[in-house]
Design brief:
By secondary structure, the chain is mostly helical. The protein has helices spanning 5-19, 27-33, 38-50, 75-82, 107-123; strands at residues 54-57, 63-66. A hairpin with a 5-residue loop joins strand 1 (54-57) and strand 2. Helix 2 (27-33) packs across helix 3. It is elongated, with a radius of gyration of 17 Å. It starts with a helix and ends in a 15-residue tail after the last helix.
């Protein structure tokens, strides 16, 4: 299974935020850390904020913070949220995609099972389990 870059960077951002949950992170700061455009990161932040995983504050001392403890945020839930609308294979699309062997395919059920197992495994871990370790002072 391959995750989109949207999910990849969303996970990285949340891992950073979980490393110091009392601190607000600016989109500029996170974009620079991950060598990502601020615009792309802002879209990820908007999605996470809309779904209640982070809160954003404007102005001095503003930025993004986790909306609840990292220990309460399951990895599978994050991936489901950020991968929403991204089918594993074309035939998983809402419209069924364009498959010439639909109705005869025995792979689809196995792929659905594998996808469910992947997400179930991620559900066994929380954001706290993967929080980035604070950098050591030199």
């Amino acid at each position: 299974m391959r995750l989109t870059s949207f999910t990849d960077y969303g996970l990285r951002m949340l891992m950073r935020m979980a490393s110091d949950p009392g601190r607000a992170y600016s989109s500029t700061e996170l974009a620079e850390e991950f060598c990502l455009s601020r615009n792309h990161l802002a879209k990820i932040m908007q999605r996470l904020a809309r779904e209640g995983l982070i809160e954003t504050r404007r102005g001095g001392g503003g930025g993004a913070v986790l909306a609840r403890p990292a220990s309460e945020i399951r990895l599978g839930a994050i991936v489901r949220l950020l991968e929403e609308g991204q089918a594993l294979v074309e035939c998983f699309n809402a419209d069924g995609g364009d498959c010439t062997i639909d109705g005869q395919c025995r792979l689809k059920a196995r792929l659905r099972s594998a996808e469910a197992a992947f997400l179930a495994d991620l559900d066994r871990s929380t954001l706290a389990d993967i929080a980035l370790k604070p950098a050591r002072a030199a």
